[in-house]
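Predict fold of DYW domain-containing protein; 122 aa.
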Amino acid sequence: MRKSPGCSWIEVDKKVHIFSGGGSPSHPEHEMILKKLGKLGALLREAGYCPDGSFVMHDVDEEDKVHSLRDHSEKLAVAYGLLKVPEGMPIRVMKNLRVCGDCHSTIKVIAQVTGRDDFEGY
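Predicted 3D structure, encoded as C-alpha cells:
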C-alpha cells in the first residue's frame, strides 16, 4: 500500500494551479511564492505564531521541521492566492488529502494578519 503525495490546487483566472509539498519548484512563479511565504512568516512570528513540529513525520532537527512545514502544498497555494486573487474575492484552495493541524492553524493566523477573512475550506 502506498500513500498518495499531498497536493493542493487553486483556480486563478480560469486556470488551475497545482502545488505539491516538499518545496520542489513545480510552479513557474515558485520564487515569488517563496518570497511571499517569507514575508508571511515574519508577520506570523510577530503575531505570536509558532510552527507545530509535531506534524512533521521525519526525525529531523527543529529548523528542518519548520522548513518542511513551510513547504506544505496548501501554504504554497494560499500564498499564491494572496498574490493573485483580488481582495474581496474568496481564496478557495482544494486538497487531495486532509489538512494537517499546523496548516489549519497557520491559515487562520494568515487570515488575521493579512486582513483577508475570505479563505474557504478552513
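The first strand starts at residue 7 and ends at 12.
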